Amino acid sequence: MRIPTFRKLLLVTLLASGCADKAQAHKVSRVDEPTPAPAATTKTDAGAAAIAPDAAAAVKGGKPKAELPTMSRSHAERIAALQAEAKQHPKASRPHIDLARVYLLEKDSKSALAEATIATELAPESWVAWNTLGRAKLAEGDLAGAREAFVDAIDLGDSAYAWNNLGVVNMRLGKYQAAATAFENATWSDDPDDDGKGAKSEPYMWRNLAQAYEHLGRLDEAKTAYQNALILGDKESKQPLAQLKKKIRREQARSAHAATR
User: Does residue 134 have a pLDDT over 70?
Assistant: First the structure.
């Protein structure tokens, strides 16, 4: 059942602890878009959490790699085909969205930003266009602009990818409670993707959620989120989960020792 945005936010407030268990049972972390967005995912867009930098790197504050000296042949061919399509269909936004995505893969954030901007001008009601614009702005280091674009994408489509990407931006800004709320909404999402299929949150979104919970000191909830990520196939959650379990045991031992004094 689809949960409207305002209800999601209300549930986050009322069910702060219970929602975590539910969310963690399904996904991980990254910045993406509907086709694929994170910590360790294979999708290229979604990420809106593997958004420009992949979700995992974005959440950890990692920087994108330097621009590649030469473009891969497959990407160059894809760009040429999309440019031809854009010229043939000047009012279509999709070629520009796809061009932006390819440029992001090539770490060419300036070209991605230009194409994503055109896409939003051609299709101002498309959440996919705004999500892609947010990814491009994030790759450019414009956190405020990226945040605004992701909020616009959420208003238009309430997508898990846009929620995840908003969470990534908030993590980068050090706003961990806001990030947790965004990742909770991402892991609860059941909205269709831009191809009309029923696509939902990704495993890496659960890892992103776990990282936000760790920053907030909500360790048991973080543990559950990592476990959900692993269940969904996110191998990158294995090590942080093991480290978190050790941390929890140490804190429990300290508490037990203090209680015996």
Answer: yes
